[in-house]
Design brief:
- InterPro entries: HAMP_dom, HATPase_C_sf, HATPase_dom, His_kinase_dom, HisK_dim/P_dom, HisK_dim/P_sf, Sensor-like_sf, Sig_transdc_His_kin-like_C.
- It comes from Candidatus Competibacter phosphatis.
- It is found in: Cell membrane.
- The protein has eleven helices and 14 strands.
- Strand 6 and strand 7 form a beta hairpin.
- It is rod-shaped and about 160 Å long.
- Helix 1 runs antiparallel to helix 4, helix 6 runs parallel beside helix 11 and helix 9 runs antiparallel to helix 11.
């Protein structure tokens, strides 16, 4: 099971249990709380009415006295009240009065006058001077038919001369209980939804951060360029920095070892040529031969210098994770500056340089590296274009990037070489001289392109009949 799913399920379990137990506790406390509030109100009402009925009870005029008249008037009133969103259109109290023996003298419902209520807790306890109350169901099997009875003593001085009981059915309170429960469940549902959303985002964020870190570690293991992942909290940032430090140290060791071997191998041939020419120059040689060997030494020394310089430039780019600065590099101006610098070589081969780049086309990146990369592509085209040939330079916008195309007339790239063009130290012989270059130019261009988030490709250019008429190099980089 994936880590993100484990975290989400664990969070879901915790939130679910918390909501369940909270609802269970609130559900158990909700109904008693409403009943307690109702009982408190009934106590106040019963004691108030017990004081008001005393005179009628002592005069023996309960059935036809002022109290009975007021209750009849009360029963005929219509409250027309709205409590929150619940309408109240009628009163639902029942009031009965018993004498000091517990016999019913008055019943607002008119049904139990003369009945002996002395054994009911509300009457029995009140006649003994205690707090009397009870809850009784009209239907023993239905909790919603329960009725709450609260009694108060009718006193003549210190003597209890009767009991007044106020009854209120639980059904009158049930709508408020149902409403409160519904709001509670809705709030719980919203809480669960919000909590799960937060948990999902948190789990995804953590899993995503760990996934990015794992991807970075895989890139480091494969030797690919990758930026240190940001975010994920201080712990993950510290872990990412630790991986980056480890990668830098390991890469540094491997890098030095690899380049020492490569440089040693590449320097063997020029050094052997220089050593051989120097040995011959120490002896007696005719003038033409001495000049030829001296030129050989100078040429191989220049080759070594180019090899070292390009190797240092490539090493600098390969060790970078991102550009040090980002500024616009105008493409047309860069090509024109290159043409001016290479004017002697262009004139010697009588080449046509067709610069079709429009004003305003510009790459965004580190100027020094981009100018070198563009120069390498142009130099490559210059070397492989035969005499009297053409080099065409174009730039086309493609969304938020510019694509620079350098097309030169000439022979096709052999199939065996197409997959190796961007390898370090791999080079094809130049058509004019048959000599190879350092093989670092295109490798440098690829590293610069990747550093800036771009791409570079080199392909053959066919004509309408499928015959190869040249080669095109395309460099795509972010637009300024």
């Amino acid at each position: 099971m994936r880590l993100g799913l484990k975290l989400f399920l664990g969070y879901f379990l915790i939130v679910g249990l918390g909501v369940y137990f909270s609802l269970n506790i609130f559900g158990k406390e909700l109904k008693p709380a409403f009943r307690q509030a109702t009982e408190d109100t009934l106590i106040d009402t019963a004691n108030l009415l017990a004081v008001l009925v005393r005179d009628d009870l002592l005069d023996g005029g309960i059935a036809d006295g002022r109290f009975q008249e007021r209750l009849a008037e009360y029963a005929n009133r219509a409250p027309n009240a709205r409590i929150w969103d619940i309408a109240k259109q009628a009163f639902d109290h029942r009031i009965y009065i018993t004498d000091q023996r517990g016999v019913v003298l008055f019943d607002s419902s008119g049904r139990d006058v003369g009945q002996d209520y002395s054994r009911w807790n509300d009457v029995h306890l009140t006649l003994r001077g205690q707090y009397g109350a009870r809850t009784t169901r009209d239907d023993p099997h239905d909790e919603r038919t329960s009725v709450m009875y609260v009694a108060a003593p009718v006193r003549d001085g210190e003597r209890i001369v009767g009991v007044l009981t106020v009854a209120k059915p639980g059904a009158s309170v049930q709508p408020f209980v149902d409403r409160a429960e519904a709001k509670l469940y809705r709030a719980a549902a919203v809480l669960v939804a919000v909590s799960l959303t937060v948990g999902l985002v948190f789990s995804w964020s953590l899993a995503h951060s760990i996934g990015r870190l794992a991807g970075y570690a895989r890139a480091a293991a494969d030797g690919r360029r990758a930026l240190v992942p940001k975010g994920g909290g201080p712990e993950l940032r510290a872990l990412a920095e630790a991986v980056e430090t480890m990668r830098s140290k390991l890469d540094g060791r491997d890098y030095v070892e690899r380049y020492v071997h490569t440089l040693t191998h590449e320097m063997k041939s020029p050094l052997a040529a220089i050593a051989g020419a120097a040995e011959l120059l120490q002896g007696e040689l005719p003038g033409p031969q001495r000049e030829r060997f001296a030129n050989l030494v100078a040429g191989e020394a220049e080759r070594l210098q180019q090899l070292v310089e390009r190797l240092l430039a490539l090493a600098t780019v390969e060790q970078r994770r991102e550009p040090q600065e980002r500024r616009p590099v105008e493409l047309r101006r860069t090509v024109e500056e290159w043409r001016t610098a290479r004017a002697p070589a262009i004139a010697r081969k009588d080449l046509e340089i067709d610069n079709r780049i429009a004003e305003g086309a510009a790459f965004l990146g580190e100027p020094f590296l981009l100018v070198q990369a563009i120069g390498n592509l142009l130099d490559n085209a210059l070397d492989f274009t035969p005499a009297h040939g053409t080099v065409t330079i174009e730039a086309d916008p493609a969304g938020n990037v510019w694509r620079l195309s350098v097309t030169n007339s000439g022979s096709a790239i052999p199939d065996y070489a197409r997959e190796r063009l961007f390898e370090r130290f791999y080079s094809l012989p130049r058509p004019d001289t048959g000599r190879k270059s350092t093989g670092l130019g295109l490798a440098f261009v690829r590293e610069v392109a990747q550093l800036h988030g771009g791409t570079v490709t080199v392909d053959n250019v066919p004509d309408a009949d499928g015959a190869i008429i040249g080669v095109v190099a395309r460099l795509s980089l972010p637009a300024a």
